[in-house]
Amino acid sequence: xxxxxxxxxxxxxxxxxxxxxxxxxxxxxxxxxxxxxxxxxxxxxxxxxxxxxxxxxxxxxxxxxxxxxxxxxxxxxxxxxxxxxxxxxxxxxxxxxxxxxxxxxxxxxxxxxxxxxxxxxxxxxxxxxxxxxxxxxxxxxxxxxxxxxxxxxxxxxxxxxxxxxxxxxxxxxxxxxxxxxxxxxxxxxxxxxxxxxxxxxxxxxxxxxxxxxxxxxxxxxxxxxxxxxxxxxxxxxxxxxxxxxxxxxxxxxxxxxxxxxxxxxxxxxxxxxxxxxxxxxxxxxxxxxxxxxxxxxxxxxxxxxxxxxxxxxxxxxxxxxxxxxxxxxxxxxxxxxxxxxxxxxxxxxxxxxxxxxxxxxxxxxxxxxxxxxxxxxxxxxxxxxxxxxxx
Length: 391
Prior knowledge:
67% of the residues lie in helices and 2% in strands. The protein has 15 helices and four strands. It is globular. The two termini are 33 Å apart.
């Protein structure tokens, strides 16, 4: 055991924050699991502990890999994940009358796997590689269509019908990374308007041919209407219960395991676990969680600044920012700053694939933080590299 701890490298603050959030997750998950019934509380908790433990192993193993190897891995994995997304989309799963083709069951082991969670990490790594390779080159839009925008478009098209919020998050994170990577702004603005245009066409086609995507567009519209319109028990049940839980928590909370709303609030172990945390641990607990994610964001930025290559800088931001963005969205939904999206709270909500991919992404960030010299030549014209050299 001692030898394992001696091999832990990278940013120690990131290790500490991730460990604190992962260990803390056992408390709200155990408490919120009571709405499954007494027979399932223990099994759900054991499952969550096992998933987090495997996730920590994934993060540990990943951080030992020199980050330059993720370039080639992203090129290999990108077509594989696109094929997996295609296979998942063609399954045609329907839940409560709505298109929900998000999971694929792995043979032999029988576990469900969500390819979209892996697609985020792979696509961000691949985009970081492309941008770093062309960082000091004049990029033309025509030259970037096939190697950059085609895989991005394919991933978004395959995820969009069943999971609009995830597709939207990927698109925003890609735009953010590409902007940081010095992609020409005039092309970037064109991509934004083109994306909005294609989304409008998609919505119109889905409305005209509802059998292709049963009720999915209606689900999106209803969520937005419920967010901006007047609340009613029938249409905004989750938000009303979440706000009641937050109000009950007050400053210090009702105490660990004493939530009353966990028995009434759907998705209390995943999408709305932040409301349960606020009810049980109060505003102090809620703000503490928010501060931990903010500190994690700060450390990810520091890791990026200290990286000695452009690829390392973009990679740390590319895989790290979506985690923080997802956390802020989840917390924002609970307090009704955003419409209901179905995004879990990273490192705390229950899940499988999403938790493992979060640990994988953090392992990549830690790999960058080890700060080993990559085979690329350090670009001293880049102010980020000048800063890291000065330090």
